[in-house]
Design brief:
By secondary structure, the chain is an all-alpha fold. The protein has ten helices and no strands.
């Protein structure tokens, strides 16, 4: 069973009425992850998740666009931050390192570790590729804006973006207590040839 990373109380399993608690996002993620482990990803419905979490369907969609988004939301927030920093002129390695500091992807880590049990192996690979591409394009655009040719920018960006995702997968597979993700991202970016 997973626990909320911010030490929020466990959900009661009862549907509540009125406004969702401030911790609904983490409660929904916890409920979804438990169900994915118990039933598998494909067999778990949004109705199952909302019932387990004790929130309404509309509350679910206030936080997540799909059940897959439950796993990726924390990482997507970090990717969005990195893309915005790159657009604002931050150096690629600095933007990627800064984003890694804020990643708290406990649901994703559990999915990575238990992907085959959850029936998520293909989904994880597909979603990882999409996000690596998004990050890679933003890094490449940033490098091109500094005068690097597109070919070299694309190659360098692909290496840096892949390094970030390799670090996330290594972090998820780490024994408890997990090392800081930022340290693994530093190592991976160094291996990919990023300068400080």
């Amino acid at each position: 069973m997973c626990t909320a990373s911010n030490n929020t109380p466990r959900y009661s399993g009862q549907m509540s009425s009125g406004r969702p608690r401030a911790t609904s996002r983490s409660t929904i993620a916890e409920a979804a992850t438990e169900l994915f482990l118990e039933r598998g990803f494909a067999e778990t419905t949004i109705a199952d998740i909302t019932q387990r979490a004790g929130v309404s369907r509309s509350s679910f969609f206030n936080y997540f666009s799909s059940k897959s988004a439950v796993l990726w939301a924390a990482l997507d927030d970090a990717i969005h931050s990195a893309v915005e920093a790159l657009r604002a002129g931050a150096a690629p390695s600095a933007a990627l390192r800064a984003a890694a500091v804020h990643i708290q992807a406990d649901s994703l880590a559990l999915a990575i570790i238990h992907g085959s049990v959850m029936g998520l192996s293909d989904e994880l690979a597909d979603e990882r590729a999409i996000r690596t591409g998004i990050l890679s394009r933003a890094v490449s655009d940033s490098l091109v804006s500094t005068g690097m040719a597109r070919l070299e920018a694309d190659v360098h960006a692909a290496a840096l973006s892949s390094a970030v995702f390799a670090a996330i997968w290594a972090w998820a597979a780490s024994d408890a207590p997990r090392p800081a993700l930022s340290g693994l991202v530093d190592r991976a970016l160094g291996a990919a040839g990023a300068s400080r």
